[in-house]
Amino acid sequence: MNVKLVIRVKLLPTPEQASALQATLHACNAAADHVSHTAFTTGIKRNRELRALTYSTIKTHWSLGAQAAQHVIKKTSDAYASLAGNLKAGNLGKPGSQRFRRATEKPLTFRPDGAQPYDDRMLSWPATAKASPT
Predict the structure, then answer these.
(1) What does the pLDDT read at residue 83?
(2) Of 4, 12, 48, 124, which shows the fewest CB atoms inside 10 Å?
(3) Closest C-alpha among 11, 16, 21 to residue 112
(4) Hey, how many other C-beta atoms are within 10 angstroms of the C-beta on 29?
(5) Helix count (H) and strand count (E) of the chain?
(6) Which helix (H) or strand (E) holds 118?
(7) Model's pTM, two decimal places?
(8) How far is it, in rounded angstroms, from Cα 133 to Cα 123?
């Protein structure tokens, strides 16, 4: 039997760890801005094709790990897919309207402190960690 255990945790980083986490978050969102600019200028917005164009640059320029780079590209691709869905549904007005133009005339941007997905391949836990109920 294969059981997957899901645990909710609260990070309590030291000041140095918090600084490193914040720097990583800012790097991820800066990299996402780069991917977004590439997607906008090339018209390529699908995850696989964006990965081919931007993966190595993200890893080297922002010193992100492989999984973080993948998440940055996927986050950007998903943001463009969401925008396309909203445009198609008419949620941003009719084509040619001011709101529609504002949404389509420039690349999407990501706030420096915007959310970044993490998964078990990006985090490691010390074997001696003690769990406390939250």
Answers:
(1) 98
(2) 4
(3) 21
(4) 21
(5) 4, 0
(6) none
(7) 0.85
(8) 20
